[in-house]
Amino acid sequence: MPEVLRPTPDSGWTLAHDGYSVTTESAVESRFAFGNGFLGMRAARSVSRGPTWASWLGYIRWASWPRCYVAGLFDMPNTEPAVPALVPVADWSRVRIVLDGATLAAREGAMLHGTRTLDLRRGVLLADWAHRTPAGVTFRGRELRLLSLADRAVGLQILRIALDRDEVEVKLEASFGLAGLGMEPMRLERDLAAWRTEGTAKAVAMAGAARLAHGGAASEPERPFPLRWVWRWRSVAGQAAVFARLVAVARADRPDEDPAPPAAAALARSTALGWRAVLAAHEAAWGERWTMSDVLIEGDDALQRALRFAVYHLTSAANPEDERVSIGARGLTGDAYFGHVFWDTEIYLLPFYTAIWPEAARALLMYRFHTLPGAREKAVRLGYRGALYPWESADTGAETTPDSVLGPNGTPVEILTGKMEHHISADVAYAVWHYWRATGDDDFLLQAGAEILLETARFWVSRAVPEADGRRHIRHVIGPDEYHEDVDDNAFTNVMARWTIARGLEVVALLQARWPERAAALRAALALGDDELAQWRDATARIVDGLDPETGLYEQFAGFHGLDLLDVADYADHALPIDVIIGRERTQGSQVVKQADVVALIALLPQEFPGASAETNFRHYEPRCAHGSSLSASMHALVAARLGQTETALRYMHETASLDLDPDPNSAGGVRIAGLGGLWQAVVRGFGGLTLSGERLEIDPRLPPQWRLLSFRTRWRDRMVAFRITQDGVDARLLAGERMEIGIAGTSVALEVGMAQRVSH
Fold first, then answer.
1. Catalytic hit among 482, 485, 608, 655
2. Element (H or E) spanning 757, and its range?
3. Mean pLDDT for all residues in the chain
4. Partner of 697 for a Cys bridge, out of 196, 277, 680, 742, CB 3.0 to 4.6 A?
């Protein structure tokens, strides 16, 4: 038993946090959160933390913010403005310990030591602590919690406790804390309960089984209420009691569905196996994922650990078994952004999943296909054709960005992103195309991808309006730089729009050449005629892009170069964002950029920056960026790495890594998962030089001089390839799949299964 409660011995696979501070506790709970893409749980202490309920007193800070989430379980809370939000479900891991009638509470007595450890390799949260009560009794505990990667409906908790004194009357109460908060009960039974959301009529069921053994024998619990267990005994000094709890969860999306039977079945599966087998299957599933996704760096231990932290959370967030959900801006690790999905998923996360876990990437893109009706409705509502995806999306595909929020002084502040940040429709198309190019998943293209590409292309043609100057303009938009709202001809938006339309034309030609029957059926269903396609070709030729052909410099949007210059470096040491320091009006009148905008375009479409153009634009915009978003640094790191600006790239990589690894209170709302996906991209696609979107897999590494090794694996069109990059050259090995040719630094190399090829620098 004790061995399973100890972390992996290799410290490169673990993160530990000692002690407790109210200023950082919620951030620790986010950082050490655990999940499996269906369920997510924050790393709140399960023992001795006391109850939690909502309070209106804004000056009181919760010492902990326990949360358990079910992906896709959205409802409309009583908030203003009213927007859908993930519904927290019962905190199934809470345990209350009572010693001689006094509840064990962290705020009373003395915490002798308390360490939480996130074991990245095993995908488990561990705790080890000792607490001396006011009565002088020392309580020692060890705990393991997980949400199974092998059976996503299942969670496990193992708790081992011991006292240093005989004859203490011990009571252990295990319950499902705040079960059903905000939901209407459907059924409440001894080991199972189910609730339905009030607004969306979704349902969730939770089932539980628990046992406790002490003195070498199992003990029967009292069962005063459903999903509640109580044990009582008298302590023997040093004798351990072991508590084990299994939980199973199921979600139902329609009123006629009952989630109780699948939850009960999942609990039956796990109890029949026993907790040791559940743990073993979970660890094996994580082992399989790490075999594919681990990235080895020799020469930068800090970045190595940060990258594993990133891959851990990326793995924890995805569920290839569910096409109806996507990944929110904070995954399933916190309440920030209400679980809403942004462009983060397609631009910052999809490259990881496409390269490492294409089954997960496919499911995430199918979410966009299933929400295509909502995107069409938004386009029509705003006067356009095709599909305009929502800037913030929940489960239905409807726009969930609020129209306004209340400012600090109580006056409404209009929110324009939902109305004007339209580049999301190009971002989705970008992810669809690059997934298909990397995987060769023709079935996805025919079933879903082609329709998304055509409808997003159609939107952009209707959005790019011909004007008197003979050009097509896209006016009244917000680009990635959200400091500047309601601008015209944002370069990122326009160039991505042009690219999307071109891909739409390409997919029409591709379908007609390879699958003429599907081409005819899809064109008929969409009423896509030759006259409209002629308009598409016209649009690709006439959309304004803001490029100065003489200098190779893009203007971020019309009039940007005429704004006031501001030295962003003068504000680098301030804790507050620059727009807060200098005010909204001055920010909008200055050449200060919130996050990568033109720089993001360099990262996504490098072919639009021939010759020295990429470096020209990066040198121009990098010093103007204030990095007011956690998305920004990793994109700059990726571009800098590709340009060979190694020190700049490393600085931005370490900045990205520190966002959630450092005990930053701003992480309280959940980990910034887009930054974690961006960090992986900066390393593998930046320094590693991996490209999957061409006719062959390409790699053109630029290793920092202080790195001795960079090693990773990737999938490409039903193959699996391993790369080992050193200062001397590149070793490539085909691990699975048919013979292939790859490009290594421009050299063509043939690979067969089991064969290793080396290209020296």
1. 482
2. strand 756-760
3. 93
4. 742
